[in-house]
Amino acid sequence: MEGTVIISFICLMVGMTAALGFYCHDRTVIQSAADELAMFGSLWSGRYMHPEIREVDYECLKASSEMPVDLLQTKGYGLIHGKLFCGNVQEIEVRRSLWEREIQVEIQCQFQIGRWQFPYTATSAAVDFCSEDFPRRKERRPEEGVNES
User: pTM for the full model?
Assistant: First the structure.
């Protein structure tokens, strides 16, 4: 009789620990995606430099002066897709701040652990960077060899 109670209690504690671990993992993934998406948006909107290829996207520069919100939302869903254990994303909202100096990202989620549901909202913001804000690397001439001493 006592062994049944002890084993049941141990199984309950192991199950609760695993569920808590899944919940913490999912919150971390969602917050990380919000942070990365805000940085991606700030790099893109500040000077139309595509952060993945590190070059100016002249087509986007010619086409519009607006930040491509749909591209950022699609990238956000791509960052989270297939990485959550017990949560699902309800909405990803990308917007500019009131004075248009920063990109704000808000990801709303719903976690289901057993029969309980927990809402969670991850928010992040990043300042728009202008191209003058980044340091430039000095171009090296081919005749300037590397000093090996």
Answer: 0.71
pLDDT tens digits for range 53-110: 656 656 665 565 556 677 788 888 988 999 998 889 999 998 887 777 788 999 999 9
HEC string for 87-149: EEEEEEEEEECCCCCEEEEEEEEEEEECCEEEEEEEEEEEECCCHHHCCCCCCCCCCCCCCCC
**Which tokens belong to 79?**
């960052």
Question: What percent of the residues of the chain are helix, what percent strand, and what percent coil, each to the nearest 5?
Answer: 45, 25, 30
Q: Which residues contact 23 (CB under 8 A, 6 or more apart)?
A: 86, 87, 111, 113, 118
